[in-house]
Amino acid sequence: MSATSLDERIELFLAEGPWAVVGASPDRSKYGNKILRCYQQNDRTPVHPINPKADEIEGLPAFPNLSSLPQPARAISIITPPAVTELVVAEAIEIGIRHAWMQPGAESSHAIDLAEEAGMELIAGGPCLLVVLGYRE
User: Fold this and answer.
1) Fewest CB atoms within 10 A around its CB: which of 6, 17, 47, 101?
2) From start to end of 2-116, where are the E strands?
3) 105 part of a folded domain
């Protein structure tokens, strides 16, 4: 990783979009939905929900994967089970996404290794985006 501190990586991640929320959920009680709403609450747009089983989430068109976005995401929040996170990171690397934030619970050591080997600016094992940006229910 090129940024030296966690705070610097977070600042770079949030500096500009577009963002994508991988694991966005139509269920408002799920973290994948709260993360998406947190971007909206903080005027972090454009933000794209990624969920292969949904057509729309929080008024936004949902996409089945990162490759199907109409414009490439610059940075992604990942809220998926660790085994899925590994696939997400591999796809992100393949299409040139440079910034990833694995939300608590989404991390796997393999996914972290993949991201770091590819030179991604990675946030893992750190705070949740909801805490950093300040989420309101």
Assistant:
1) 6
2) 19-22, 47-50, 56-57, 60-61, 75-78, 99-102
3) yes
Taking the mean position of all CA atoms in its chain, how far away is CA 72? 13
Identify the DSSP state of 24: -
| pLDDT value, residue 1 | 44
In the chain, how many domains are there?
Answer: 1
Average the pLDDT over each of 3-17, 30-44, 47-61, 107-121 and give the range with the smallest value: 3-17
What is the b/e burial string over 81-92, where b = at least 16 CB atoms within 10 angstroms of the residue's CB?
ebebbbebbebb
Q: Which domain holds residue 101?
A: 6-51+60-133
For 76, residues 6+ apart whose C-beta sits below 8 A from its C-beta are 19, 20, 21, 22, 50, 66, 88, 92, 97, 99, 100, 101
Q: How far apart are CA 95 and CA 32, in angstroms?
A: 22
The pTM of the full predicted model, rounded to 2 decimals, is 0.95
Whether residue 1 is contained in a domain is answered as no
* Cβ 26 vs Cβ 113: under 8 Å: no
